Amino acid sequence: SSEYDIGRGAGKITSADHPLPLERRSEQLPVWPCFDKLDRRLIKIALPVIANFAINPIVGAVDLFWVNRMGNALAVAGQAAANQVFNSAFFVTSFLPGVTATLISKENAKGNKEGVQDAISQALFVGMLVAMITSSLLYLNPEKVLSSVLSKDAPSMEYAKPYLLIRSFACLPACISLVGFSSFRGVLDTVTPVKISLLSNVFHAVLDPILMFALAQGVRGA
What we know:
Number of helices: 10
Mean pLDDT: 82
Low-confidence stretches: 1-18
Distance between the termini: 66 Å
Structural class: mainly alpha
Radius of gyration: 24 Å
Strand content: under 5%
Strand order of the largest sheet: 1-2
Helix content: 55-70%
Largest sheet: 2 strands, antiparallel
């Protein structure tokens, strides 16, 4: 008789040992978490991922905080508009994390290290290609891109444009970090990306006031 893996049990059962069909057997598994070994492992993997996604929006929040310290409402409006445009443009890479983590986890489960390296290389190539195209569009046509959220004669355009020009260079390193974080998740290392995110955000928070005020770069320093 054929065998079926019961998932949470200690071994396997055969169709002769269980009178219910396979479809009904799956219904007998616990619906709510019972905090067994499997649940604890899933929680251990999931919590750092959730924390990493919670940290990411801090980048824009830190910029907004320091730009607001300039005491210029137009600068705040320009930075917010440019930040929204950048995030919308960068959304085209949203498919990378899921695809990359899936391919890497599949190869890692097989113990195929070369397959893992190939998956990472392919993801980096695609990510860098998309990032360079996105960065070029943002850098070469800032006014056209910003026109989706601001009129061309808007007073805040003078602040939004330089911020977006500088921010456009972040597409490439952001894509590389996106692939890197996905690669770590693919091998079930979800703690390292959180450490990197925390370090980079602290570094960013320290540099913002130095560039904006000490070096008098204004919005561009954000």
